[in-house]
Amino acid sequence: MQTVLITGLSGFAGVHAALAFLGEEWKVHGTVRTQEKKDKVLNLLSLKEWVDKKRIEVFIVPELVGGDFTQALQGVSAVVHCASPWHLTGKTWKEYRDPAVDGTVRLIKQAAEVPTVKHFTFISSFAAEGDAVKPWSEQKGVKYTESDWLPYDEQFCVQVEKEKNPNGPGIWYAMSKKIAEQEAYATHKAIGAKFTISSILPAMIFGPSLNYSSNKGIPEQADMSTKTQYHALVSGHRQPIQETAFTGWSDVRNVATALYEVVARNKSGRFNVVDGSYDFQILANVARKAKPEYENYIPRGDPSSPTPTELCGTYEISNAKAEKELGIKKIPLEKTVVDAIEWFVTLGAVHK
Ligand SMILES: *[C@@H]1O[C@H](CO)[C@@H](O)[C@H](O)[C@H]1NC(C)=O
Ligand SMILES: *[C@@H]1O[C@H](CO)[C@@H](O)[C@H](O)[C@H]1NC(C)=O
Description:
Rossmann fold; seven-stranded parallel sheet; three-stranded mixed sheet; 13 helices; 40% helix; 14% strand; binds 2-acetamido-2-deoxy-beta-D-glucopyranose; FAR_NAD-bd
């Protein structure tokens, strides 16, 4: 049985990535930052079966930048790097850059010391590819593929910080993903690492938040995907519809499948994994139609008018490479939304 190292095992995508490998007869080494996170992961409802079967071992690595992954890397055939900050509350460029860029580069170097490692894959983001600084409503007809890169440089991040630009965190997040990706490929080449390297580029990730076991922490302290979906899907029918900052979405299970498939099929390079376009009115409309029994919980907005993306159009993100080379099939938005709502119900975060 082969072993995969998954960093950020307690994260929204980390748990799904683990399930994708566990279901294919792999063992999982996972890293988390604290003992508290370790206890939480080992008690997750979604992982219980595998913890009981002793197929998961959890290691504590307190920080990404200075972290020592030696123990967690012992005997692993593949590394799936999921740990990277995704929030918009940072104050400086460095706060985004260091964990994303230095964390990834450091892990690649450590993995290169371990002869059993055959593959290194990591979660990047559509943010590293498309121009998220330019409003989507002005990008009708633009089609992004894996050969595109976010058209800014580090200089711009520094300037944004000096100007105290309120869009700083969004720009820094996107740039940290771009530079992390470019540095990852450059490092892999420079040190002559023997493994194959690939990156998965999702857009806004939706789907069940399997890394929660109780409703504690939802929505206030939850991560972006969980918080966003909580507000969009079950926060109450009078809640205003959120403004849509990015219009591409990905089902977390397709992200996880892609992470598994690049490893299983030994594929290198970038792969967009994107299931479609959305805005929050569309999410609400789809949810109300699919789950009428929860109409008191699902924000209503204005279901009778065209939605923002229907009005202006938006960019398109090509999923063709992942479909062709990884066998990824798009998941309908309705399924993603229904499964997310049902998981919130399971967590006791929605009372019918
Ligand atoms: C779930 O994952 C997110 C990040 O993806 C993290 O912020 C959050 O703390 C996790 N929840 C638990 C219970 O560990
Ligand atoms: C994986 O692909 C690379 C080329 O990208 C090749 O050098 C390597 O031998 C392949 N590994 C396996 C296990 O097939």
